[in-house]
Amino acid sequence: MNEIRITKMHGCGNDFVFMNYDEFVKTEMNLEDLSKKLCDRHFGIGADGLIIPIPYNGDDADIEWRYYNSDGTTAQMCGNGMRCFARYVYDKGLVNKKSFAVKTLAGIKKPEILDNGLIKVNMGKPILKESEIPFKGERQIKDFKITPVSMGNPHCVIFTDEIPLEMAKKYGPELEKHPYFPQKTNVEFVKIISKDEIEMAVYERGCGITLACGTGACASVVASVLNNLTENNVRVNLPGGSVNIEWQGSNNDTNHDIFLIGPAEYTFRADFML
């Protein structure tokens, strides 16, 4: 029986198990099986995902990560996970600066640890070209008008006057697997509060209902701006807390990076018996 050292963290209730790369090697397990075991909320630690820092020797980034959903599938990107990752690797001394570059399956992402303790992440430019999301279909599913967006992972944004969390629970499982999204999709239901504030709930691809989704918050603000519903700096209220999103894009010019600002909190450290 192996004993491994893990750290539990969360960003607005979106929770993750962290372990160093050498701890992962000790497990002698593949990442798919390991993530399912550790993330199980009854027989494991319980989390939405597993994140492992990977040493990186390239010139384009300071460190690499591996992110696996609780169902064992990979995810190209996770905004809440990236904020927690930034704090974790800095506190562990795996990077020695507060602003650095991380290699992900969605490209290079650049988090920064702010003086107030919040984490700001340059999430890159939203992807709106349908073939790159990927998305193949109409902008209407049943009675829902949808806005497809990718933040390195696909999102289906739907505006509603109802309670977003109830809508996500009811319709998320079906929409996640809709054939318009060949790689499945995250599903966001968004309620506009004002020009600078929205409420959002998400059914995450590979996880189900989660308390927060950073890439979903970004995609929701992009969709809100493109539909002329909000300004460019927006507070996003999620079931587990709030984040701030900054995007200077518009219908006439979408070629702008989007920034995610929010907390990253430790829950506990422990030894886990495999």
Spans of at least 5 consecutive residues whose pLDDT stays below 50 are none
Here the CATH topology of the largest domain equals Diaminopimelate Epimerase, Chain A, domain 1
The amount of helix comes to 10-25%
What fraction of the residues are assigned to beta strands by DSSP?
35-45%
Distance N to C terminus: 6 Å
The CATH class of the largest domain turns out to be Alpha Beta
Order of helices and strands: EEHHEEHEEEEEEHEEEHEEEE
- Please, what is the average pLDDT? 96
Total number of domains: 2
- How many extended strands? 17
Provide a compact summary of the structure.
The protein has 274 residues and is of the alpha+beta class.
Key features of this structure:
single chain, 274 residues, alpha+beta, Diaminopimelate Epimerase, Chain A, domain 1, 2 domains, 38% strand
Descriptive report:
This protein has helices spanning 21-27, 31-39, 79-91, 164-176, 214-226, and strands at residues 3-11, 14-18, 49-54, 63-69, 102-104, 107-113, 119-122, 140-141, 144-150, 154-159, 186-194, 197-204, 208-210, 233-238, 241-247, 258-262, 265-273. The protein is of the alpha+beta class. It is globular and about 50 Å long. The model has no long low-confidence stretch (mean pLDDT 96).
